[in-house]
Amino acid sequence: MKYHEIIQHSAAYIQEKLGIIQNGTVGLVTGTGLGALTEAIGNQKYLPYEDIPNFPMSTVSSHAGRLIKGDISGTPVVALHGRFHLYEGFDAREVTHGIRTLGEMGIRTLILTNAAGALNPSFETGSPMIIEDHINLTGTTPLRGKNHDAWGDRFPDMCAVYNPELRNLAIKKALESGIRLERGVFLQIMGPNMETPAETRMYKAMGADAIGMSTCMEAIAAHHMGIKLLGISCLTNKNLPDCMQEAALDAVIAQAEKSSAAMTKLIRAILKEIA
Ligand code: HPA
Question: What domain range includes position 163?
């Protein structure tokens, strides 16, 4: 089977079990510790990833794997709760299997969330950061290999991966809701090791404001398919090269969970406006 046929197979099964999606359905990817976001989904129907043909299975215990269909603030949503990472050993196509599937199902708007370390010293831990642009430092891309022209161009333009209107909407909603919001450039490393102080210094010099181990692959695949994207990082820790502190996974997850109320509030408000 060709790659796009593998994806179509996953999409067909989901549609058979959960129904065809409504026009205007928004895709949602919930990052580390942000599973609480899925509790905001009303009228839930879900499929465990292991039931969906060809779906990879997450190896990270902090990422339960299920696809959830429902609605938030009156907007129909399909959420990928649990994502796949390069550091788990998946390749870039496997990492973006869920995104490609959402695209095949007809999703035209997608919200990606993640947990990220703040490189910008003025950023506050716990704040959401609107991703304005990204630096893909993984050395790979989901577009590697034969292009499926029906999805998108061989050499897609990348001048506005994160949709400016959605970014502005998020800023407006954060202001209205009294949520402190940062904006900046997100950099993806492959992981799973955190960065050294010397690397942190380099990433800052490159122009990154936040760093994490997900999202760029998904953003590239979604953008390739012409999906409008909003990316929101939850800043779980600070990475200051001259006074590096240990970033333990437990602390990252705990902070993401603590911040999930603000993230949920913001996303609810955004979806209400989109509806
Ligand atoms: N570095 C890389 N990935 C991360 C971090 C970090 O500091 N925090 C959360 N994900």
Answer: 3-274
